[in-house]
């Protein structure tokens, strides 16, 4: 598996995975995903090569607002094909997003379903803490979400 910037040609596959992964919570359409790329948000794809064919098995996106030292980042989505879950794809995608945030020395925020124990554990393992609860955040299911945050990572050479 390798990570690379997500391209417009990948959007039909991402929309397909969105429908599969988030069926009860208003999955993002291809046009919404296109808008995310149009706005310059950072999106990654996780790809595997089968014979001569490249297959997208996961995707993730983050936005960063501001400039280094006053930036803030927000994870928009992470999705992994169910057949590839539990193989480190989500971890690799999250680490790729966090690397973008770290370039800006930005704290990172995200929302996650309160019943998504594997994702919560992944985020905690990467320095996130729960800072709030958003009741009925996901629609139309009405599922609650935790708001989680990770402080900015500032290296010695960056100070």
TrEMBL record:
InterPro entries reported in the protein's UniProt record: AcTrfase_RimI/Ard1, Acyl_CoA_acyltransferase, GNAT_dom, MshD_Acetyltransferase
One GO MF term: protein-N-terminal-alanine acetyltransferase activity
Annotated N-acetyltransferase domain residues: 1-153
Entry keyword annotation includes Transferase: yes
Keyword Nucleotide-binding appears in the UniProt entry: no
Keywords, ordered alphabetically: Transferase
NCBIfam families the record matches: rimI
Protein name: Ribosomal-protein-alanine N-acetyltransferase
């Amino acid at each position: 598996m390798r990570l690379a910037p997500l391209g417009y040609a990948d959007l039909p596959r991402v929309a397909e995975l969105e429908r599969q992964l988030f069926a009860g919570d208003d999955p993002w359409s291809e046009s919404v995903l296109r808008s995310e790329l149009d706005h310059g948000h950072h999106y990654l794809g996780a790809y595997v090569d089968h014979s001569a064919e490249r297959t997208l098995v996961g995707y993730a996106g983050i936005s960063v607002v501001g400039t280094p030292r006053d930036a803030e980042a927000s994870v928009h989505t992470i999705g992994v094909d169910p057949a590839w879950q539990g193989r480190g794809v989500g971890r690799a995608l999250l680490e790729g997003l966090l690397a973008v945030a770290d370039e800006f020395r930005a704290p990172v925020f995200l929302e996650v379903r309160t019943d998504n124990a594997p994702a919560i554990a992944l985020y905690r393992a990467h320095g996130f803490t729960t800072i709030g609860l958003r009741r009925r955040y996901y629609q139309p299911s009405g599922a609650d979400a935790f708001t989680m945050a990770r402080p900015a990572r500032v290296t010695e050479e960056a100070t």
